[in-house]
Amino acid sequence: MFVTIFLTSFGLGLLLTLYLKRKQRQQLFKDLGIPGPEPHWWHGNLHQLYSKPNNHHKQLQKWTAEYGKIYGYFEGPTPVLCVSDLDFIQEVFIKKFGTFNGRKLFQLQPDPEKSKVGIHIVNSRGDRWKRLRTIINPSFTSAKLKQIFPLINSKVDTLINLMSEASNDDKAVNVHKMFQRLTFDVMAEAAFGLESNVQHNTDDPFFLTCRRVFDQVEKNLLVRYIPYYIPEIRFHLWKCIQLIGHFGKNIFPAYAVIGKIAEVMNMRSKDPTLCRPDLLQMMLDAEVKSATYDGNLEISFDKDEEQKVTEKPVLHTIPRTQRRLTANVRHPYFLLSDEIKTQSMVFMLAGFETTSTALGLAVYQLATNPEKQKKLHMEIDELLTNEEDISYSELSSLPYLDMVFRETLRMYPIGMTVVNRECMQSSTIQGIEIPAGVNIQVDMTSVHHDAETWGPTDPLKFEPERFSPEIHDSRHPMAWIPFGAGPRNCVGLRLGMMEFKVVLARIMKKFEFVRCAETEDSLTLAEKGAITPKHGVIVKVVSR
Ligand code: HEM
Question: What PANTHER family does UniProt report for this protein, alphabetically (predicted)?
């Protein structure tokens, strides 16, 4: 009896403490005089954000309309300042990047400061992120992109054949799916040297596994909610999931993706003839196998590894006096083996899903706006004489194609959910004192659909002409930010843009895309990490 009373009182006391602590944290925006929706003590505003499918970006937009360009909401107890004020965004993402260098923690992720495993360019922060980004950046120079240009072209040859077959059949096709397979083939071969022919072999197990990763983001309630409600357990829950994933790769497909990349790494280390100048090799060249990481940002190396780390041609050379390396030494040129695996997974996923979605959305808009499609056809017919021999430099001489690219990503800021930063040390912006730990989320839909910036034509209309240089050059630098902003913007921006343009230019030369009975009047969007057309993009392909 006594034990029961004791345990019940203890439990109630614990709950009361939790309740009061949360209520106090959720007072933050009121104390700062910042408006926003009333938070529930337990879930904050999560239910409004995620209760219906697809409505995270729409909900932010709704709140912006109600509370203005700067307002606060809560993910459980975690404060998020949602902004669409362009000067504010510039201050956070560029001018004060040093203070706002971390991305908002993902629902499930390891401790970015202490974890030995599971850290990559997207979820890291501080000096660790700088080190990873410094090594990765050179993979996306023009010279590197020119190297993979022929590979992309060969994959587009296959796409054109498949589209020709579809046009002969006179059936409606889901072009979004076709683009997904194409960009997957490009990424698998260009980044990892994995021979891939998913465009023909649609049941390829590696492709299906990668697709399952996105489906899981949308479906898995455990992944989605628990760490938001109780962020204190986020890192522990991640460790449990990692353990489960280690033994059951089918339960968490991300681990199967990592496993596949580890296979390629092993093969290359056993047989150096398999090495090729790709993204993976670039990372492998910086790999230190014998580093030990003690969780306090201290890394020590064997003598031979130390040589490798210090003598690479790095952007920021480490003084010889600092031979005892630690991770907080700025930018030493090395990667831990686990960082290479998890980072590769991120590239594989980020690299194919975003670009294919952008292509699908562009084709949807062109099919439903035939006069714009005609304008693009005219430009391509005039300036692109032989589409098969298209060159890298020709891509920049197609101005209307560039406008179509920009307008598509203006209408659909597909990567908007990750355009956020955490305040690492208290800071004041526009007179608002932002305490450390507050997250800044950009409401990109509101930024990209703001009638003041994008009018007089209705911002919901597809109007590539908005981007004619004489109009666009006078806009605020933060008015169009589909790839984020500042030093931590999208590292694959140029690859994504090149791939988009070469694919669209070549298929436009050959085909017309036509609305049909199965084409949605208004595209239903879903959020699977990125914004994506829920039911694909279904149109008819007509040979020209
Ligand atoms: C149309 C295509 C793409 C779009 C719209 C897009 C969008 C974005 C956005 C909005 C961000 C967040 C930037 C920020 O927080 O400021 C981002 C980050 C990132 N993207 Fe992309 N992306 C695209 C293509 C790619 C490709 C092809 C790759 C890789 C091959 C890639 C890899 C990454 C990585 C690794 C990051 C994290 C960068 C960091 O934290 O330092 N993306 N992307």
Answer: CYTOCHROME P450 FAMILY 3, FATTY-ACID PEROXYGENASE
Q: In what order do the strands lie in the sheet with 78-83?
A: 70-75, 78-83, 439-442, 420-422
Delineate the domains of the chain, giving CATH numbers in brackets: 126-419+450-543 (1.10.630.10)
Amino acid at 98: G
Q: Decide: 539 and 363 in contact? Cβ < 8 Å.
A: yes
- Summarize pLDDT for 358-412 with one digit per residue, the tens: 999 999 999 999 999 999 999 999 998 888 778 888 888 999 999 999 999 999 9
Q: Which one of 483, 488, 494 would you pick to mutate in the ligand 1 pocket, going by the greatest count of ligand atoms within 8 A of its CB? A: 483
Query: What does the pLDDT look like over 45-88, one tens digit per residue?
Result: 988 887 765 578 889 999 999 999 999 999 999 999 999 999 99
Count Cβ atoms within 10 A of the Cβ of residue 121 and give its class: 0-12 exposed, 13-18 middle, 19 or more buried.
buried
**Which residues' Cβ are closer than 6 Å to ligand 1?**
121-122, 133, 346-347, 350-351, 354-355, 358, 409, 414-415, 418-419, 482-485, 488-492, 495-496
Annotation: binding site for heme: 490
C-beta separation of 512 from 544 below 8 A: yes
Name the H helices within 230-336.
234-247, 253-270, 279-284, 303-311
Looking at this protein, which amino acid is placed at residue 324? R
Using DSSP's 3-state secondary structure scheme, residue 164 falls into helix
- The helix/strand/coil state of 13 is helix
The residue among 176, 179, 173 whose CA lies nearest residue 158 is 179
